[in-house]
DNA sequence: GTTTAGCACTTGACCCTAAAGAGTGCTAAA
DNA sequence: TTTAGCACTCTTTAGGGTCAAGTGCTAAAC
């Protein structure tokens, strides 16, 4: 357990270091503390903190900087819960205030706002509605051998896709297939629908027409669109750290990461469990060493019965945690409000 | 006018420099030439080329590298028209050979292929069909106050968008509006449709219902989706040049460019005029100084009566022009073939 | 009249050293 | 327990020397 003074010193080290990016020495630190001690005293205390693994030296005669463990301790115990500034709040509310046609637009735009506010990379995940069910499936003929396939879920989502019919198709057979699909699949959870599409549905279709391939692709396509987790990224380029430009190997790996959204989306998987705001530092984010010098701040937002979503910010370990956490927290609340509004307005009967 | 020997020397300088990235000196150059001369002779010739503004020194005692004007001359007069390798051709054909559901998928995928082949940034633009007309507009009710708006063009493109109706809507009025829209707008070019949507249509809608806003947004939305130039980018990150990491200011500007597709899409505007493959070097690309060390290779591809599209590759000025131009040229032909196939198969009656 | 050998000169890259500055750990006194 | 003082460590910066690559020029060779 640390003394009160040691806490203050660790706090000051983190504050200084996140501000300047330079290791902080005992003399400067002494001046920055809220009580008056000499640099020698600070040195003694720093020796204790170093023994506890909370701070590091870059080399034997450099100043100190927080270790991962030090950041952890800071975030867990020393964070001063500074509320978000009025200005930031206004920006958030204004950005979310504009009118949107679709949930996806709000979520996607949110990633950009959050990224702009923090100047880091931001992620947003659509509210996950457990147990979404297929509530209807239609083919609307458009003439000239074209149809549009429309899928509606009981959560109110609509997905559609245009399709060109095989030349030699019997229209009656087509109607029969649609009726069969609706008979068989409406009311089932989307996961089950996907399963059945690979399972018994092909055979049933073949009952009416020669080959099921084209239709299966079509169904599969719209169902997976509807079932897909909607994942958005804002400010991905912020992941590339200017200051860190020395190591080309690390940059290379970062590039790979930047181009593969799926890898990034996995980072949020563990975030689904918790509630509220959660901070993961360095190796706590993933096994991948590229992210060792990053911190991930995740938060869930809760839209009542409409489900829970996730927002997240990925920035350097050396970040102003107080501000960033404050922003993420404010954002999750505003986003939840906004979405509740949206759902109420559009999806309720 | 340059002598034959000077041509050969310039050619060799470009070849060497694009290969190694290092200024080339007279001694090495003399060894690389197809005829036997001493380094002193080469030095004399290089002095001539430098006076003509075709080559440069980095400092008073460095080797020479091509100037922008030198590249221009090289591309215009010295390029040896090496055909694309069999291997590359196979890659192109295979990549384009897979099955696609939509034109957009082909075009979008093309940008990725082209970027992979060249390891530069690639752009693709969908074939522009002049004078596309609206051939039908429908609202299909989905129950629970939802409808899906569907727009079909005479080129066979389909766009759709889900929409939630205002609570207090009169269904008859709705039908009337749709009928009116179809009466008024079907058969018109999309540009005219857009114009009318801002012009007399609002008033006409208000004839049937109180406020036209929601509907106008909806119409506007699907029409602009259909009218929008489809622009795809592959390998945008390749724009960031590892070797050039020294100048942080330039990097910063590059970042901005990377995030703004519209600015990039403007680069292709001037490419629409020409036919075949076209090379723009450095400042010829745009006024923006960030692109001074890049070259843009554009090419049109012609899908007969279905319109013309554009592909382009943006890479460093120091690039192997012969290979890149060859690739772009091969690609435009293969893409045209593939698309012709697609259109014939799907859109013809 | 070209071409070439030779040479003085320029420049960047690399390495070494010295000095300055920031910081530490330790000791002994306050 | 705190602090002043000091020896020591390490990084950064500047300067100087050397080396290799390259140039321009001159005078001789072809």
Give a description of the structure.
Chain A has 349 residues and is of the alpha+beta class. Helices cover 48% and strands 19% of the residues of chain A. In chain A, the strands form 3 sheets. The first copy, chain A, has a 5-stranded antiparallel β-sheet with strand order 7-3-10-9-8. Chain A has a 3-stranded antiparallel β-sheet with strand order 4-5-6, with helices on one face. In chain A, helix 1 (4-20) packs across helix 4 (68-78), helix 2 crosses helix 3 (39-51) and helix 5 packs antiparallel against helix 6 (103-118). The mean pLDDT of chain A is 88. Chain A binds chain B through residues 101-102, 136, 138, 140, 142-146, 148, 150, 152, 156, 158, 160-164, 217, 221, 237, 240, 242, 245, 248, 251, 255, 258-259, 346-347, 349, and chain B through 101-102, 136, 138, 140, 142-146, 148, 150, 152, 156, 158, 160-164, 217-218, 221, 237, 240, 242, 245, 248, 251, 255, 258-259, 346-347, 349. Chain B binds a DNA duplex (30 and 30 nucleotides) through helix 2 and helix 3.
Please provide a brief summary of the model.
Two copies of one chain form a homodimer. Chain A is of the alpha+beta class.
């Amino acid at each position: 357990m640390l003394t009160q003074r040691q806490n203050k010193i660790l706090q000051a080290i983190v504050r200084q270091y996140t501000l300047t990016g330079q290791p902080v020495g005992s003399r400067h630190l002494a001046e920055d503390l809220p009580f008056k001690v000499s640099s020698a005293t600070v040195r003694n205390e720093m020796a204790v903190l170093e023994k506890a693994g909370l701070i590091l030296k870059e080399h034997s005669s450099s100043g100190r900087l927080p270790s991962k463990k030090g950041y952890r301790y800071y975030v867990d115990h020393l964070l001063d819960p500074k509320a978000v500034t009025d200005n930031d709040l206004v920006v958030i509310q204004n950005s979310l205030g504009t009118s949107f046609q679709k949930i996806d637009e709000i979520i996607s735009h949110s990633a950009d706002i959050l990224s702009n506010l923090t100047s880091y990379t931001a992620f947003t995940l659509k509210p996950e509605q457990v147990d979404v069910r297929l509530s209807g499936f239609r083919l609307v003929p458009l003439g000239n051998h074209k149809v549009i396939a429309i899928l509606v879920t009981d959560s109110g989502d609509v997905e559609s896709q245009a399709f060109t019919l095989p030349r030699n198709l019997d229209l009656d057979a087509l109607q029969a297939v649609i009726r069969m699909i609706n008979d068989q699949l409406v009311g089932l959870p989307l996961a089950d629908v996907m399963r059945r599409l690979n399972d018994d549905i092909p055979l049933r279709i073949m009952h009416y027409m020669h080959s099921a391939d084209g239709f299966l692709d079509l169904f599969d396509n719209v169902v997976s669109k509807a079932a897909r987790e909607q994942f958005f990224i804002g400010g991905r380029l912020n992941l590339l750290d200017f200051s860190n430009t020395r190591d080309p190997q690390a940059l290379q790996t970062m590039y790979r990461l930047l181009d593969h959204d799926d890898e990034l989306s996995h980072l949020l998987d563990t975030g689904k469990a918790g509630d509220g705001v959660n901070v993961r530092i360095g190796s706590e984010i993933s096994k991948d060493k590229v992210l060792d010098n990053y911190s991930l701040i995740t938060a869930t937002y809760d839209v009542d019965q409409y489900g829970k979503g996730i927002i997240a910010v990925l920035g350097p370990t050396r970040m102003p945690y107080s501000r960033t956490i404050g922003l993420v927290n404010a954002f999750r609340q505003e986003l939840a409000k906004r979405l509740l509004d949206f759902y109420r307005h559009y999806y309720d009967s």
